[in-house]
Structure formats: structure tokens, C-alpha cells
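Dear colleagues,

For the upcoming journal club I promised to circulate an example of a predicted protein-ligand complex. I picked one with coenzyme A because it came up in last month's discussion. The inputs are reproduced below in full, followed by the predicted structure.
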Amino acid sequence: MPNAYISGTGFYVPPRVVTNDDLANVYGIDTTHEWIVQRTGIEERRFSEAGVATSDLGLYASEEAIARAGIQKSDLDMIIFATLSPDMSFPGCGVFLQQKLGLCDLPDSKFVPALDIRNQCSGFLYGLGTAASMVQTGNAKHVLLVGAETHSAAIDLTTRGRAVSSLFGDGAGAVVVSATEENRGIRKWKLGADGRHANDLAQQVWDIKKRPFLPMSPEGVGQVYPEQMWPHMDGKQVFRHAVERMISVLMQTCVESGLTGADIDLFVFHQANLRINQYIQNHLGIPDEKMVSNIQRYGNTTAATIPILLAEAERSGKLKPGMKVAMVAFGAGFTWGCAIAEW
Ligand SMILES: CC(C)(COP(=O)(O)OP(=O)(O)OC[C@H]1O[C@@H](n2cnc3c(N)ncnc32)[C@H](O)[C@@H]1OP(=O)(O)O)[C@@H](O)C(=O)NCCC(=O)NCCS
């Protein structure tokens, strides 16, 4: 059975920087830089312009990951796309990305499968488990795995939505998961979910139990009321469960891998809230030099946080071949996961 390893990383964030002061001064939200930084660590985030789709962000990140993997697009055997902010309701972003990469227009196109993953902040790790399994079972040699979000289009950028909208930003990260006979790669992954909390962090938009699924005006125009349109969150519940689940899934994955925390060289945590990650770091006694974070600059980019961190850590030299890396995420659902890789 081949090992599955991350052969290339890439990321893209839109150029437009939106600071906390911009939320107050440009969008008119009743908030302050101090409030947001004190509770979340976020200083700024990126918003893409109208006309840019999530699959576009994914495309830029993917092109870099493919180049850094040293393969051709035609070498890809599968696309996995994790997002909670897809271009449209259906089909998923995977097929749009496939087309934008030009994979369908190749003379010898393989028309590779394209799979969308709907696991929010844990989407990248759910995708990594899927990609690793495809590679280890010999069903694929190279899987392109993307996490990308366009939150700026779908958050309530008014005072009403400030508890959610001050947290999120746009961005994309991508990796290529490849087969190798070398003794390295993704060693272990564990995933979990607790559907009792499905409504603690959710964006309803429509209700499929209704006929039709959206209220309709007499003229036949679908209407979405603000409480359905925008995401809502029980922030305190999310915070508490994130801390508990991230600690326990990390410890379980280490134990089942025969490792202790001291054996891990780099901890790559989902970027929901700097205070969540600092709590976990202090609880487990992880030294600063083994942590990476970018929430200060990008906010929470949901499925994109971990692949962006991996790409940035590789570029800065913080992530080097041979290192043991623990990736941990928690998010809406609730869902969570951990993966340990030997880089
Ligand atoms: C969102 C979060 C920062 C809110 O902090 P909190 O201390 O729980 O704050 P609360 O939600 O209780 O709100 C306290 C007050 O601050 C206000 N507030 C919320 N967002 C605000 C903002 N951006 N600026 C100013 N005030 C804000 C609330 O309206 C509330 O006001 P009220 O008391 O007049 O009603 C915090 O709960 C959190 O980070 N949770 C985890 C969220 C997360 O990680 N989500 C992603 C998961 S993947």
C-alpha cells in the first residue's frame, strides 16, 4: 500500500484588506478594533470583489499547489473541494474548478471525479482523510484538495450581524495529496461529529420542508428574511465545544499514533479564534515556536485556514521535510478532526 503525502501547497487571499476599523467606519457596524482583538485576536481580513467566485479563489491556490507538487494538471486523478460558501446551491465547486483548470479540455482528458465536502471548518481535514484513503487504496496517485471560502458575500455586514461578521474572511488554500513509496506522509486521521449542535452555528437560507422551499411573493419572487439569510451562532457554545473537542481529538490521535505532544514539531490549528487556540496551547503546554497562526491577518477562512497555514509555513521555512505536523479543526455541525503527517 503506498503512503499518501502532501506533495505541494498553495494559497490565495484577495488583495483587499478590511481592518476592524473599516468594519466600523466603512460598513457602519457598531464595533471597535479593541473589542474584536481582545476576544478573537483578529486585526484584519480579506474580502474579494463582486464578480469573484469561490472556485476562482480555489483556482489560484490550486495552480500554485500543482506547480509546487511538480506535476502537470493532467496528472490529477481527483478533485476534492471543501467549502461552506459554494458558487451556487448546486452543482458543487469541484466541477467549476475542474473546468477552470482546463481539465475537461485536455486532448486526453480523464474527466476526473470532482467531490464537494460540506463540513465547514473541518472540511479540509474531512477532505484530507478522503484524499489519503483514495491514494492509499491505489485509486488515485494525485488528488487536488482545496479549501476555499467567500464569506464576504454571505455575512450580515451590519450591527445586527456583528458577532458573526467580524470573525470571517475570504481565502483559499490547496494541497496535492500524492502517492509515495517513501516512509512519510499522512500517518493517522480521526474525524468526529455531534449533530445535537447542528443549529448552534448555521445558515438556513431555505427550508426544504416548505412548499415551495422559500416564501414567494404574489409575483413569484422568492423572499429570504434576514434571520434565514444570514449565519447565526451561539458563540459561547462554539467556544466551549471547540476547546474540548480539539484537545480530545488531538490527544486521541497522538495516543493512537504512539506519539506524545512533545513528538509533534508543528501544530496547525484551525483559525476560529486566537483565544481558543491559546487556551489549548496553554492547557497542553505547547511552546510558542511550535504554533502557527494567521487569524490576525485573515480572520476565520473556514475550510481554507489549515491549507493556507501549511503553505505559509512552508514558504517561511517553519515547516520542513521530516517534521511531524498535527492539524486540528473544529466547526459547524459540530464537526471536528485531527490529522498527523510526517512532512
Ligand atoms: C463570537 C465571540 C467573540 C463573542 O464573544 P462573547 O464574549 O461570547 O460575546 P457575546 O456573544 O456574549 O456578546 C456580548 C455582547 O457583545 C456584543 N458584540 C458581539 N459582537 C460584537 C462586535 N463585533 N463588536 C462589539 N460588540 C459585539 C453582543 O451584541 C453582545 O451585546 P449585548 O450584551 O448588548 O447583547 C465568542 O463567543 C467566540 O469567539 N466564540 C467562538 C466563535 C467561533 O469560533 N466561531 C467559528 C467556529 S468555527
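Two points we might discuss: The longest helix spans residues 235-256. The mean pLDDT is 97.

See you all on Thursday,
B. R.
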